[in-house]
Amino acid sequence: MLTYVSPEEAVSLVQSNETVVVQGSTSIPTVLLNALTAQADRLRNVTIISGFGVANEDAPYAQRELMNSFRAVTIFVPNNLRKATREGVADTIPCFLGEVPALFRSGQVPVDVAFLNVSEPDENGYVSYGVSADIAFSGAECAKKVIAQVNKFMPRTYGDPVIHVSQLAAVCRGDVPLVEVPTAVPSALDTRIGQFIANEIPDGATLQIGVGGIPNAVLHALRHHQHLGLHTEAITDGVLPLIENGVIDNSLKKVLPGKSVGSLILGSRELYDYVDGNEDIMIRDVAWTNDPAVIRLNPRVMAINSAIEIDLTGQVCADSIGETVISGVGGQHDFMYGAPLSEGGKAFIALPSMTNKGKSKIVAHLTEGAGVVTTRFQNFYVATEHGIVYLHNLPLAARAKALISIADPSQREELEREAIRRFGPSYR
Q1: DSSP for residue 321
Q2: What residues have CB less than 8 Å from 127, skipping those under 6 apart?
Q3: Which pLDDT belongs to residue 179?
Q4: Closest CA relative to residue 298, chosen from 230, 371, 366
Q5: Which residue ranges in the chain fall short of pLDDT 50?
Q6: By the 8 A CB rule, do 243 and 337 touch?
Q7: Which pLDDT does position 327 carry in this prediction?
Q8: Can you give the pLDDT at residue 2?
Q9: Domain coordinates of the chain in residue numbers?
Q10: DSSP secondary-structure letter at 370?
Q11: Residue 185 CB: number of other CB atoms within 10 A?
Q12: CATH 3.40.630.30: does it fit domain 7-173?
């Protein structure tokens, strides 16, 4: 029989100089983190490692006055650590998300404790940390102590994120509803970009698709396709209509045919209810879902990702605005590399031509301090509301011309001047 303790007693197992890996997605174990933060006076140099996550409030431990007690480190800057990272209170490890589990398993990043947010135990004593395998699975696997909050709102999913209660060092109650991420409604501009990409996607393709208006526009434009598959990092509400209407049936996939595969889930309560106990949804370790050697095994993999800006040679910045890191590499690189290796696969970068502040997102040079997430060597298709271009077979000057053709018309003259200055007579 499972014995519950208070959150305060559960986190008392954490000691100074230990490293704690925290589950993410929309299921950050806030009850445990709040209890740990309240014990800051007894702790020194506790490293708290997080990955991708969505929270309703800033991380309580990432405060300047608590830096002697807690060292906040993240693999992917989530919304609850963005301010702390910008201020230098938290730091980030630049890393492909699919490679994070190897850091734990190799001991390069030792793991002492894992904090999980889990479902009620089943009749055999197993709990599921349903919406988040990503780095939580490997973190729990490598931890010396696994501490969990049992949450009646956590759906039970099939796949990797399952653990027996006998493996838990301490368990408390934590009945906190999962964060809900509103479904982005595509704008007219998103819809136009989505249609350009959908026109390039054949029946029988396997999709990797992200979050936001443009991905949802792509999914909507695919509603008349047939026999699509899903092997992605994040499963969102946008795929539900395609699954429910049989457009995504996973019948032609080579890897886990018949199953929609992801490493994390984020969206609405409707989505969480849909995946609860659904054997057709498979949640797996991100080291596996994001492995290009696995990705390439499926037919016609279509990787669709976004960007903050892209330069005239095709370099993609997707994680920072200048020096300010606002997210991370995530799985973009993993899928941008793996998708074109599959038979008939394609990789897309989708972005509006202009920011909301009227600045071109196709630029002569990336903003000073910006990071390159997808290199110019791995950029295939780029789509804006003004069209779609294929870059992979083009020399640099021809790439610039192609990208300028889909920039906002108001920006093309200036971009052309920069291209002529940079590439000289070869730009023609």
Answers
A1: E
A2: 118, 119, 120, 121, 148, 150, 162, 163, 164, 165, 168
A3: 96
A4: 230
A5: none
A6: no
A7: 86
A8: 85
A9: 7-173, 188-426
A10: P
A11: 9
A12: no
Residue 16: predicted pLDDT: 98
d(C-alpha 42, C-alpha 69), whole Å: 8
367 CB-contact burial (10 Å; exposed 0-12 / middle 13-18 / buried 19+) = middle
Cα(251)–Cα(268) distance, integer angstroms? 26
Match domain 188-426 to its CATH number in 3.30.2420.10, 3.10.580.10, 3.40.1080.20, 3.20.20.370: 3.40.1080.20
Q: Do domains 7-173 and 188-426 have the same CATH topology?
A: yes
Under 8 Å between Cβ of 215 and 209: yes
Amino acid at 328: G
Lookup: tokens for 311: 């330069």
What pLDDT, on the 0 to 100 scale, is given for residue 428? 79
How far is the C-alpha of 36 from the C-alpha of 294, rounded, in Å?
Answer: 38
Q: Distance between CA 362 and CA 309 in Å, rounded?
A: 6
DSSP labels for 158-216? EES-EEEGGG-SEEEE---PPP--PPPPP-HHHHHHHHHHHTTPPTT-EEEE-SSHHHH
Beta-bridge partner residues of 302: 207, 346
pLDDT value of residue 241: 95
* CA atoms within 13 Å, Cβ hemisphere of 343: 7
Residue 72 pLDDT: 97
Cα–Cα distance between 186 and 215 in angstroms, integer? 8
Residue owning tokens 């940390």: 129
- pLDDT one-digit tens code per residue, 93-152: 999 999 999 999 999 999 999 999 999 999 999 999 999 999 999 999 999 999 999 999
Rounded Cα distance, 76 and 97, in Å: 8
List, by residue number, the catalytic residues. Answer: 233
